[in-house]
Amino acid sequence: MKTILVTGGAGFIGSHTVVDLVQHDYKVVIVDNLSNSSAKSIKAIEDIVKTEIDFFEVDIRDKDKLSYIFELYKFDGVINFAGYKAVGESVELPLKYYDNNIGGVITLLEVMEEFGVNTFVFSSSATVYGIPEKMPLTEGDKTGAASPYGRTKLFIENILSDVALSSQKWKIISLRYFNPLGAHESGNLGEDPNGIPNNLAPYITQVAIGKLEKLSVFGNDYDTPDGTCIRDYVHINDLALGHRLAMEYMFNKKQSVNEIINLGSGKGYSVFEIIDSFEKVMDKKIPYDITKRRAGDIDISIASIDKAKKLLKWEPRYGIFKMCEDMWRWQQKNPNGFH
Ligand code: NAD
Ligand code: UD1
């Protein structure tokens, strides 16, 4: 049985990935400082997989504690989700983001190097494509992040590429996620945003549950058929699968790996189409106003997923209704998330 360290495993994407890994016979160890999550998500994982998970409440920038954990286990690979992700906050507090996101990965890589663990998956983001010139977005397209958060992702991708080129022993994949949506279908594990959500889907479900009054649709004058922005939404469990397949791809490779791979559905939905999908699933109307554009939003973002299909043999399994259905179940069962 292979053992995988999942940093940030108490968070949204990490927790779903842990479930997938454990259900496919991996031993998983979670390191998370709970800065944006709750230990209750670990309990929810354990209830789903019916196995105890080894969890350490540790900051990945704490080299001594991280080294201690590497002494306890012989890891076959590491998946890193630990990082901050609020775009707006990163503009106000750039150093907090550079320190945690970049500093965290550097410390983690140093400890991995010291203990001879060289297989690594990194959570990057579609945000690194900046203002795109064409759709769909392929991994070779030009990059240009528009926020400190986005730049941390871009810098880390570059650091990882340098590390992978420095020695044949490294196997590294950066996964560029598009827009994760959905929840575990038990309704017991899902996204638990802090305060008022920044992202569209949790905002919609919180309006539907009565926690928020109405949605603001940020602009209907974009260059799209209905005037609202188009995004590529991908089910959280498909993202989770992508991480396991990325790990397995590297485990099966004799030589070094240095890849960047998009994970999206390859399909685009406008804000109005997302509202409509949720309304059908919930069988209720979502009140909204059209307001001004949000700074930094682009008209369209859709992934080319050819590389993930070819290299990882990954294929998204779930469509938009299943994403909305699962997310709504989670929201109804847990109106206050894990709190
Ligand atoms: P999340 O905030 O739910 O999970 C991140 C986890 O990392 C949290 O549990 C947090 O407590 C932990 N963490 C943060 N800093 C840490 C540190 N220094 N040491 C230990 N733990 C730490 O976020 P998520 O949505 O699950 O995203 C996971 C990763 O994927 C992030 O790096 C994010 O930037 C990236 N990403 C997310 C999205 C998205 O839409 N959710 C899109 C693209 C990329
Ligand atoms: C946001 C982040 C991006 C991150 C991505 C996935 C910003 C500027 N970008 O992108 O870095 O990689 O999430 O987590 O924050 N919308 C509304 N009303 C709302 C919320 C959103 O109309 O209350 C619209 C937005 O204008 C956008 C669409 O819904 O057109 C999707 O928004 P969101 O869920 O925030 O995702 P992204 O904008 O793609």
TrEMBL record:
Residues 5-327 form the NAD(P)-binding domain. Gene3D superfamilies: NAD(P)-binding Rossmann-like Domain, UDP-galactose 4-epimerase, domain 1. It holds the Pfam family GDP_Man_Dehyd. One of its GO terms (biological process) is galactose metabolic process. Its EC number is 5.1.3.2. The keyword Ligase does not apply. It is an enzyme of class 5 (isomerase). One of its GO terms (molecular function) is UDP-glucose 4-epimerase activity. This is UDP-glucose 4-epimerase. It comes from Lactococcus lactis.
